[in-house]
Amino acid sequence: MIRLTFIAILLSTSLLADTLNVVPGSKLESIKVALNLARAGDVIQIAPGLYQEGQIIVDKAVTLLGIQYPIIDGSNESEIITVKANGVTIRGLQIQNVGTSYTEDRAGIKLDGVSDCVIQDNRLYNCFFGIYLKRSNDTRIINNEIIGEARFEMSSGNAIHLWYCKNISIVGNTVSHHRDGIYLEFVDESFISGNTSTNNLRYGLHFMFSDRDEYTHNVFKANGAGAAVMFSRDIIMRNNLFENNWGTASYALLLKEIYDGEITSNTFKTNTVGIYAESVNRLLIKNNDFKANGWALKIMGSCMDNKFTANNFYTNTFDLTTSGKSDYNTYTGNYWSEYTGYDLDKNGYGDVPYRPVKMFSYLVANVDASIILLRSLFIDILNFAEKVTPVFIPEGLVDPNPLMKPRP
User: Fold this and answer.
1) Would you say residue 130 lies in a domain?
2) How far apart are CA 41 and CA 56, in angstroms?
3) Closest to 212 (Cα-Cα) out of 240, 244, 182, 188
4) Chain-centre distance of CA 359, in angstroms?
5) Per the domain annotation, does 111 fall within a domain?
6) pLDDT tens per residue, range 294-320
7) Helix or strand or coil: residue 404?
8) What pTM does this model have?
9) How far apart are CA 266 and CA 288, in angstroms?
């Protein structure tokens, strides 16, 4: 009896749901008016055209559905859509021209204290912040295009910005020309996959104080730095491409105070630094490709109990450098393109251990200006002498089982 009553309530609710059509030049030509008329469960279908409306408050569980990407223009004066109800879907809109503010985090779409929402297949252009979630949970951000016009960090926001959120899926979005492409602060148990983040001023992806998150199959290309993961634990970083994140203070992946995670099957190509790690503990770094980077790895002396295995290091200027006189990490079974040892027993591993830290890389890490000596005969002699009789480089920093051929 209870089940039949519940089904009857659902059916009556669906029958009561309505579709409101917003059309320029008609009796219902305003999105705000349509929202005032709508009830929970209704669909507000927005016809093609230009709607110069800002500060649109969605306080009911409705669907905003654009037909052929109607343009909602904030005229550079205000936030455009603010969601204050659970269960809202926003799909198929072109949202543009959010005004820059130094006192408010204005966004094209902002979710404030809500859950179970879907933001999908939208275009957001020239927005201060693109999509902004604040204390919101169980929401999907899917296949949106977010392109800004950021020139300076201080006067720009992030394409996708999450603060104090949980269980968020960020999938298949294209973000560029913002301060950060994707920003997470105090965001737990979330999933970031299949996004392309390029040409952002600071980071393609920025994590802070966020635990048990996973990001996979993303592209971070030509940003100020590829990704920064800081003050977090249990982060899975898998199958991402970090490419051409290049500059005097740029990294493909910056790690600071990270614990108990894994970095597997990623590609680091033509970056200033592939991975920079500081106070990082108990990470598994496995099956990654490092190709044509300035430094493949910069592992500071504060890093402990990390395992580097089955990685390929191809034609990097420096494969590895460290700032410490001791090293408490494990390097084993990696391929190093500069390894010149032999394999008499034909087991696929070199019979001679490999020391991946060159004396010159240690010198550059401590005296930046010494980089001008790169490729000189003096440096070749210096590297050879340190290889024969290690003095400055940690004696235990060695791969005892270097691969003879790259891992497939």
Assistant:
1) yes
2) 18
3) 188
4) 34
5) yes
6) 999 999 989 999 999 999 999 998 899
7) coil
8) 0.88
9) 5
Which of 157, 74, 65, 166 minimizes the C-alpha distance to 113?
166
Count Cβ atoms below 10 Å from residue 347 Cβ, excluding itself: 10
- Please, are residues 202 and 153 in contact by the beta-carbon 8 Å criterion? yes
How many CB atoms sit inside 10 A of residue 42's CB? 19
Q: Token pair of 177, please?
A: 């020309």
Token readout for 96 is: 């543009």
Handedness of CA 149, 152, 155, 156 (dihedral sign): positive
Cα–Cα distance measured from residue 355 to residue 295, given in angstroms and rounded to the nearest whole number? 15
CATH value at residue 172: 2.160.20.10
Which segments of 71-172 are extended strands (E)? Answer: 71-73, 81-83, 89-91, 94-96, 107-112, 118-120, 123-125, 129-134, 137-142, 145-147, 160-171
Residue 357 within a domain:
no
pLDDT tens digit sequence for 111-134: 999 999 999 999 999 999 999 999
Task: Give, in order, the Cα–Cα distances in Å from 129 to each of 25, 36, 161, 345.
Answer: 31, 26, 7, 59
Q: From CA 56, how far away is CA 243, in angstroms rounded? A: 39
Residue 32 structural domain: 18-203
Kindly tell me if the per-residue pLDDT of 335 is higher than 80. yes
Tally of structural domains, the chain: 1
**360 within some domain:** no
Radius of gyration from C-alpha coordinates of the chain: 26
